Amino acid sequence: MQLDLSGKTALVTGSSKGIGLAIAELLLRQGCKVAINGRNAVALDQAAEALGGEPVLRIAGDASRPDDARRVVDQALQAWGRLDILICNVGSGSSVPPGQETHDEWQRVFALNLWSATNMVEAASEALAQTRGAIVCVSSICGVEVVPGAPVTYSAAKAALNAYVRGIARPLGKRGVRINAIAPGNILFDGSVWARKQAQDPSAVTAMLEREVSLAALGSPAQVAEWVAWLASSKSSFATGGVYVLDGGQTRS
């Protein structure tokens, strides 16, 4: 489906692999000019190669640091002169088991999963207001309801991200900017936690899926990317402040 994205400019954070890379790939196919971002310049070069030689802007930087976030946005604006779409995809569910949280771990996980988004939105909001642009944040079902065994730090950070998206939608909307989030469930890609679990004990993964997930399947980055691209497009022009679950029927609330 064509989404009227041709000629738009899009900045995708956390896009050197996995969901972020799939989002960048789809936006390119839809005709966007795309900037990929991550902390590792070498990984970004590899991601650009994985995109099949498509011309992409590579901007290394740590979105969890305010100065880096501003620099990343500035470099995109210097290249294009405008910004239409911001995808906030930096995040990680890797943390300590429930009950073993420390102050430093709370700080680390919130920086990755919340500050990385709030910093980028703050840095890009003026440019997005000029284009009446769209923001999509990649959250998690762990922020929607309790997922047994999920790190509490990660779940709390994603719940805060969801609250941020809902709350900031009104002031951004007054400036013509839309913001939404997508909350994926179990997504499989190279290097993901589910790739590791499948390698370690595939029968346990199958049993969990049959027990907990209505469709009894893992999701793919491409499936997430389709939703993100739709939320970034004019097809969803009346949608803002929403958190959309994509989990194969795992959550119950």
Give a written overview of the molecule.
It contains 8 helices and 7 strands; from the N terminus they run βαβαβαβαβαβαααβ. It is globular and about 50 Å long. The protein has 2 domains: 9-184 and 220-246, Rossmann fold, CATH 3.40.50; 187-218, no CATH class. The protein has helices at residues 18-29, 41-50, 66-80, 103-131, 152-173, 193-200, 202-212, 221-232; strands spanning 9-12, 33-38, 57-60, 85-88, 134-138, 178-184, 243-246. Helix 2 links the parallel strand 2 and strand 3. Helices cover 47% and strands 13% of the residues. Strands 3-2-1-4-5-6-7 form a 7-stranded parallel beta sheet, with helices on both faces. The longest helix is centred in the middle third of the chain and has 29 residues, at 103-131. Helix 3 runs parallel beside helix 4 and helix 4 runs parallel beside helix 5 (152-173). It is α/β, with parallel strands linked by helices.
Count of individual domains? 2
Given helix and strand content, the structural type is: alpha/beta
**Largest beta sheet: strand ordering:** 3-2-1-4-5-6-7
What general form does the structure show?
globular
Proper CATH architecture of the largest domain: 3-Layer(aba) Sandwich
CATH fold naming of the largest domain: Rossmann fold
CATH class value of the largest domain: Alpha Beta
Radius of gyration over C-alpha positions, nearest whole angstrom? 17 Å
Fourth-level CATH superfamily of the largest domain: NAD(P)-binding Rossmann-like Domain
Low-confidence stretches: none
Strand content: 5-15%
Number of helices: 8
Secondary-structure element pattern, one letter each:
EHEHEHEHEHEHHHE
Describe the main β-sheet briefly: 7 strands, parallel
Termini Cα gap: 30 Å
Output mean pLDDT: 95
Approximate helicity band:
40-55%
| Strand runs, count | 7
